[in-house]
Design a protein that fits this description.
It is a single chain. The chain is an alpha/beta fold. The chain has 4 domains: about 120 residues, Response regulator (Rossmann fold); about 180 residues, P-loop containing nucleotide triphosphate hydrolases (Rossmann fold, 3-Layer(aba) Sandwich); about 80 residues, Helicase, Ruva Protein, domain 3 (Orthogonal Bundle); about 40 residues, Arc Repressor Mutant, subunit A. About 40% of the residues lie in helices and about 15% in strands. The strands form 6 sheets. It has a 5-stranded parallel sheet with strand order 2-1-3-4-5, with helices on both faces. Strands 7-10-13-6-14 form a 5-stranded parallel sheet. α13 crosses α15 and α16 packs across α17.
Length: about 475
């Protein structure tokens, strides 16, 4: 845990700020409870909508409400809370993440609408930016303190060649004050890498602010990024800092940049070029000093070709492209990652860490993990939540991890005595030779994007 972490208390509060968590999924409630406690908050749990509404009389600092719950859905709870306590910040959560739902929630008074699976660092950054119970803060909220590092894990774990190379690349690029684009599949840890770059940079003592681009609705885009003045629009009851202002002097991490709607991209580009912006409802120009890190699981060059992303914005954000390999390409790292997740779980629960049997390790290492590290974390947390022993057996894990017949998964990493990586390298070498070194033709024959071909050539030392 970050040793610099301080308990988020209001100036007149007698203890940690109380945060209402309303969700009918036990693993998510447990995960949020552990993460918020580690960050210094006091979680208050509700298992359904009715329980959430019953908690409104308590001194709640902020509410995290699931969109779909039994008893009363999230929208009903939102309306109830805003009617009873209009000033209460309410953050809506949903596995669906549809824009119409997000707009409806924000119009009803929600502070933000965030998709599942939740990005805990982003959620904590948002909560850190909320004003405390001090009238002076209603005029100009203080800049948020850097949020604590993700609990699972504290660094990019593993001793595979890919993990070692990535840690070295993080160390190098952290010293460069230039925009960085993180690429890789969903769940590989792009948010973690962004934070590690920030923590190893000269900006480490300044804020690290996380923003998910899909959660930025067109109607609220400028307000979210640039802030607004009191009375700028209906519902703007006080001045609010935007993400650029909150991150001033530090790092702004824009996750899933490929999902930023095309009409909004010029507005972002203008600020990145000129470093000048205005709060909504203000005529005063503000300057920004941020280090920009963006992330995507899509091929932005292909999206530019389909006219779904601006080429000039791509040039602006892609000064350095850092690719994060999927978990299936660094299988030796799976067990250390799993042990770290279980150790952090034990700390958050105040108990002993669950051990992994050899059979459990083999099962985890054989699975392909299409959801990567995020999927591994979710599987382990769910298994730990329901385990009544001091160790995890294969039967504690979901059916999808188990081979359909003996040896199915175990055969996956090896082909004819060669590792999957070696087979992939041989295939790439032979196809490149067949295509006379033409990268585009090689990509088509292998069913890959051209960018993936270049990334794999770098990995295997073919460039």
């Amino acid at each position: 845990m970050n040793s610099n972490l301080t308990t988020p208390e209001g100036p007149r509060s007698a203890g940690p700020l109380r945060v209402l968590i309303a969700d009918d999924e036990p693993p998510l409630r447990v995960m949020l409870q552990s993460g918020l406690r580690a960050a210094g908050y006091a979680p208050v749990l509700a298992h359904n909508g009715r329980e959430a509404m019953a908690q409104a009389d308590q001194d709640i600092f902020c509410a995290l409400i699931d969109w779909q719950m039994p008893g009363a859905d999230g929208f009903e709870v939102l309306r109830f809370l805003k009617a009873k306590r209009p000033e209460l910040p309410v953050i809506m959560m949903s596995a669906r993440g549809h824009i119409p739902e997000a707009v409806r929630a924000v119009q009803a008074g929600a502070l933000e609408f965030i998709p599942k699976p939740l990005d805990l660092p982003r959620l904590l950054a948002l909560m850190q930016s909320l004003p405390r119970k001090d009238p002076a803060l209603a005029v100009k909220p203080a800049l948020p303190s850097p949020v604590p590092a993700p609990e699972f894990p504290a660094t990019f774990l593993g001793d595979s060649p890919a993990a070692r190379q990535l840690r070295e690349n993080i160390r190098k690029v952290a010293q460069l004050n230039v925009p960085i684009l993180l690429t890789g599949e969903s769940g590989v840890g792009k948010g973690l890498v962004a934070r590690l770059i920030h923590e190893q940079s000269a900006r480490a003592r300044r804020p690290f602010v996380v923003t998910s681009c899909p959660a930025l609705s067109p109607e609220l885009f400028e307000s979210e990024l640039f802030g607004h003045e009191r009375g700028a629009f209906s519902g703007a009851v006080q001045r609010r800092l935007g993400r650029f202002e909150a991150a001033d002097g530090g790092t702004l991490f824009l996750d899933e940049i490929s999902q930023l709607p095309l009409p909004l991209q010029p507005k972002l580009l203008n600020v990145l070029q000129d470093r000048i912006y205005q709060r909504v409802g203000s005529s005063t120009s503000l300057t920004t000093d941020i280090r920009l890190i963006t992330a995507t699981n899509e091929d932005l060059e292909e999206k530019v070709a389909r006219q779904g992303f601006r080429l000039d914005l791509l040039f602006r954000i892609n000064v350095i492209d850092l690719n994060i390999p999927p978990l299936r390409e660094r299988r030796p790292d799976i067990s250390p990652l799993a042990e770290s997740v279980l150790a952090q779980w034990a700390v958050s629960q105040g108990g002993a860490s669950l051990a992994l049997t050899d059979a459990s390790r083999a099962l985890l290492e054989a699975y392909s993990w299409p959801g990567n590290v995020r999927e591994l974390q979710n599987v382990l947390l769910r298994a730990a939540a329901f385990c009544e022993r001091d160790h995890l057996e294969p039967e504690d894990f979901p059916e999808k991890l188990h081979p359909t017949k003996p040896g199915d998964h175990l055969a996956e990493p090896q082909v004819g005595g060669l590792s999957a990586d070696k087979v992939d390298e041989i295939s790439l070498r032979q196809t490149l030779a067949l295509c006379g070194g033409n990268k585009s033709a090689t990509a088509k024959k292998l069913g890959l994007t051209e960018k993936t071909v270049y990334n794999r050539m770098d990995r295997y030392g073919l460039r």
